[in-house]
Amino acid sequence: MNKIKKLKRLPLIIKNLDSLVGNNQFVFLISHMRSYSSLLSHIMGSHRSISGYYETHLSYKNNLDLLHLEIKLMEENNGKETIYLDKLLHNNCDISDNIINSDRVKIIVYIRKPEKTCQSILHLANKTQGMEPYQNIDYVANYYYSRLKFISDFSKRVSRDSLFFKAEDIIQDSEKILSNISSFLGLSDRLDSNYKIFKRTRQPGAGDVSNYIRRGVVVKNEHKYNTKIDEQILKKLNVCYEDVYKSLKKNCKFIS
Asked: d(Cα 21, Cα 107) in Å, to the nearest integer?
């Protein structure tokens, strides 16, 4: 954080000092690209008790990093300070064991099957400037494989209850998923499948840049892709998915 940003944030910090030094809660969504993470984070960020709906690209080593997240989200969602949300979709963003297992932190994990995930990444990359590496199926497959392995290892580090479900169920069985998340977070008002459009919605680097995220409601259909994934690549990714799926079911509280 540079000096100019610090000075600009000072009035906000002073105004919300009581909240910042309080016992605020945090929820981290652990997943991968094109897992409906923007949809879920928009739904959660639309709740009156949750701040955050986009990917901040932060790592969390200590309480100062949690404070950084609070201040960052207060700039946009001032007045909502019960639960602060971030989603982590890449291996270069991690959370220390102390933070993972803090009683102030909740972990939600979800993964999507490989074929649709890879097709979706390729489709988006071919339409989006700055995503050129993801136009290559080998690059995409490596990302997906390494990310799932990372998520599996991550789940083994969590000693507290964490929640796990199939990403597809966010749209196919949204009522059940949102009900379980609401209970898991102890929300007095249940999460709703309708959601708000925010300042950073469709902003590159913050989440989904496609038009689908602007619908404002969960739509129960999946996009059809013409891209064919090499059978050998898909076989390797399917084996990885099944292994990680079993591991997550074992290590997390599973929504079947």
From this structure: 22
